[in-house]
Each structure stands twice: as C-alpha cells, then as structure tokens.
Amino acid sequence: MPTFFDALNELMAAEVPLVAVTVVDTVGSVPQDRGAKMIVTAEGLRFGTVGGGKVETKAIAEAQAMLAGTEGETTKFTQWNLQKDVGMTCGGAVKLYFESHNVGRWRLFVFGAGHVANALVNVLVHLDCHVTCVDPRAEWLEKLPDSPKLTRVRSDDMPSIVKSIPDDAFVVLMTMGHTTDKPILVEILRTRTFPYLGVIGSDAKAAVLRRDVGEAGLPEEAKRAFFCPIGLDLGSNHPYEIAVSVVAQLVRIRDERRSVSIGRDSSPQ
User: pTM for the full model?
Assistant: First the structure.
C-alpha cells in the first residue's frame, strides 16, 4: 500500500499542482492526531486524511483556494476551534499546516535544440520552472539534459505548436536560423500574446525580422512586440555565456511582472 510520501513523490514528479496538509498540533477532543497528513489536488482529496467530516471538508476547501490562486500564500498555518470555527460538537482545537507545490510554476518554451538552446535549457532546469523544448531533430533533442522539469517535443511543423502554448509562458526562438525562426515568430505575432517573446540574433537579424513582420501584413506595433537580440549586454559568444545573459533577462522580466501583479493585488479597493 503506498505511503503519503510515495503519493507525494509521484504527484511531484508528474508536476501535478497539490497542497499537502498536516496536523501540527491539537488541543482537547479532535478527530485526528498530530502528524496526520493528506494531499489535495484541484479535483479534491487525493490521499490521506486529517480527520474526515467537517474539519476535512473545510481543510480541502482551504487547499483548493490556494490551488486556484485566490490566495497569494504558498504556505500557511491555520488554527480552528472545532466548535466555533468548524461547527463540530468536539470541544477541541486543531492547527494545520498547508504547503502548496507545483502551483504557478514558471513555464518556458524554447524552439530549437542546438548548442545555445542546449546551454539555455541546462541552466533553466536548475530553476523552479518547467521547460518545453521543440525541434524537428530527434538527435538534438536527445542531447538535452534528463530532467523532470523538461519536456521534449519533436515536430516537423513548429509553428503548429504555437496554439498549444500556455498564455503565461515565456517563449524563446533559437532554431536552426532565420528561415525557421521567421514562421514561428509570425504565427505568434498573428495569433498570440506572451509575457516574453524573444528571438536569438544580431541587430542585423532583428532588422530583417522586423521587415518580415511588416511584409506579413502585421501592424506596426508587432515589430516592437519581441526582443531581438535577446539577453542582457554581458559576456561573450560562448553558448553558456549567452545562456546566462538570456536567463538573466528572463528572470528580470519575470520578477518585474510579479512585482506589478503583487502591487495590483495589494492596492486599495
């Protein structure tokens, strides 16, 4: 029979958003002892118990609110008087610890699996994120690091992948060259908007891409809707130094967006 940690490890490896709930303290008559644990997903109770009945129903609702993003906290302690706060006849109190995992994870799509893309993915998988790398060449995808944070997608029609990218993903184009970057870029600018869109290349390539965007009949603002060149102005042309400069830019923009979101959420209503 699987244990709590077996179930937790399986869900974590599958990157299923979940909240682990633990009874950390009790007073008086309560339905479960200290140390009792359960796992809650968006669908409801997945494993274990913290007492059943009304206290568990209330705890599941609290956990699902965390999963839904209606609360900004990723961990929290909650203490309930079972009679006053939960409506149970027990006269005791319980303190619960809620800890969310795989919630709001940073998602990135990298088109291309060449030398620089390989270096970029190798850096990204050490961060709290999930990376999807798309390339038509199976042999290059196989060179990417083995990581539960990485999904490899082999596709001969990379622009067709654009429609399946989550709205909150950061997207980086670094395929075999201009001829393969261009159709992906045009498809994105025509149909989608992402918090970050960048194309690897020089100032000269950027000028050509912006001309391509205009020739595709897209509005003038589309020419300013992507980064090219990408990365911060540091380092050399070594693949890993380029990767570090790109990751630095990605993290900076991610954190700027989070700061704006937090400020918006905390502003007076």
Answer: 0.71
